């Protein structure tokens, strides 16, 4: 194991973390790796804290334990944090995003049975579903979450109205493969390693990766209650810094990535075989039907800080999709909410501490699978611009 980072790099005195131990929740997903490695390799001690990792069974459990204070912070779905903030993903609480933990690295998986009927990608699935509307059930991991929004976006980009043409259910990520195998669902969107595990188990095929939907999309956030961030700013800054260092370490070499895989595959973390994790971490993909490719936009944890900055436009995008699908009944103050939730000032301080580059602005631009450009400039117009959305197709079906 690499030598642990030395302790005490924070500025003693007024900058000392308010808490020595930080209770951080996570789900067994590959993208928890930077949190795990920050604790395992001692990057947390470098900044005067100890990360106490707590494995959780579902995103609902993460939400509830963040809300009750049983967890100080958590590896969390970006859309979960914003769902709780807006009171549509559980009881309303003022929430905070400290940083983005990853880009890319999720997948949409279809059952072998669907593949046997010719549905192997979005276009072929749409053709099958036109003949049998509402005959198929798809799972996401939390109603306002990242996977729900990417699943719905992908379906709609292929002409499928998620709530009119399909049935949608919520399933915790580690239970996806078993539910697919049992025939309870026909497909799912979840983080790795569960998409690749479905292939290894012979029960699913990869129809799309989420980086094909949105290259370098936001993934999990490091989330907390806004009250905790306000009362413990030095602790939060130290936590961000430790995770930045861990992400940088993971991406420093292939050997480090393989060491990370060995660590997170253990029973305390993902409790799965290394083979389910390693191939896609190294960018080696297959769809389960003989197609193989190397993906430069596989799961990323740092990219010289480009992954981790809490862009306001990332948070705003989730609100546009919550509005699109009728979860938000009224137009929110997109910029105001994102500016309050995303803790840009704390992140900038941690970036300076770790020598991490900072972007020029608070927004970024991307072109998604349907050709639409998202840049945060007019979120209300963007939310209303889709041909397939709740207001146009689903209100009468609800």
Automatic annotation (TrEMBL):
Pfam family membership, one: NMT1_2
Keyword Ribosomal protein: no
InterPro entries for the chain: NrtA/CpmA_ABC-bd_dom (IPR044527)
Highest rank taxon of the organism: Bacteria
Main location: membrane
Coiled coil spans: none
Cross-referenced PANTHER family: ALIPHATIC SULFONATES-BINDING PROTEIN-RELATED (PTHR30024), NITRATE_NITRITE BINDING PROTEIN NRTA (PTHR30024:SF7)
Listed name of the protein: CmpA/NrtA family ABC transporter substrate-binding protein
Organism: Janthinobacterium fluminis
Origin organism lineage: Bacteria, Pseudomonadati, Pseudomonadota, Betaproteobacteria, Burkholderiales
């Amino acid at each position: 194991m690499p030598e642990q980072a030395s302790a005490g790099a924070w500025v003693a005195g007024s900058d000392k973390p308010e808490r020595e131990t930080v209770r951080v929740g996570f789900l067994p997903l590959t993208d928890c790796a930077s949190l795990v490695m920050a604790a395992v390799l001692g990057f947390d001690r470098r900044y005067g804290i100890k990360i106490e990792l707590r494995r959780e069974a579902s995103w609902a459990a993460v939400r509830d334990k963040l809300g009750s204070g049983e967890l100080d912070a958590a590896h969390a779905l970006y859309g979960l944090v914003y769902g709780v903030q807006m009171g549509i993903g559980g009881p309303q609480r003022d929430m905070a995003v400290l940083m983005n933990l990853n880009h890319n690295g999720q997948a949409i998986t279809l059952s072998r049975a669907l593949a046997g009927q010719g549905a192997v990608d979005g276009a072929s699935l749409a053709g099958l579903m036109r003949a049998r509307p509402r005959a198929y059930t798809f799972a996401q991991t939390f109603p306002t979450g990242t996977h729900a929004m990417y699943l719905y976006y992908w379906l709609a980009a292929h002409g499928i109205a998620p709530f009119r043409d399909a049935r949608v259910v919520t399933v915790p990520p580690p239970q996806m493969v078993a539910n697919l195998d049992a025939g309870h669902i026909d497909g799912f969107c979840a983080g790795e390693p569960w998409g690749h595990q479905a292939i290894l188990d012979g029960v699913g095929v990869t129809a799309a990766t989420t980086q094909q939907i949105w290259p370098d999309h936001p993934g999990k956030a490091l989330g907390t209650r806004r009250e905790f961030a306000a009362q413990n700013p030095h602790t939060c800054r130290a936590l961000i810094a430790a995770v930045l260092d861990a992400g940088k370490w993971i991406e420093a070499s292939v050997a480090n990535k393989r060491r990370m895989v060995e660590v997170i595959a253990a029973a305390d973390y993902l409790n799965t075989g290394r083979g389910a994790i390693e191939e896609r971490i190294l960018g080696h993909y297959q769809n389960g039907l003989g197609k193989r490719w190397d993906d430069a936009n596989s799961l990323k944890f740092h990219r010289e800080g480009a992954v981790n900055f809490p862009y306001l436009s990332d948070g705003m995008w989730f609100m546009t999709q919550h509005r699109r699908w009728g979860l938000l009944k009224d137009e929110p103050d997109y910029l105001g909410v994102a500016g309050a939730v995303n803790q840009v000032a704390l992140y900038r301080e941690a970036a300076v501490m770790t020598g991490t580059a900072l972007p020029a602005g608070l927004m970024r631009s991307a072109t998604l699978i349907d050709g639409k450009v998202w840049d945060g400039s007019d979120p209300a117009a963007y939310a209303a611009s889709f041909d397939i959305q709740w207001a146009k197709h689903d209100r009468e079906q609800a």
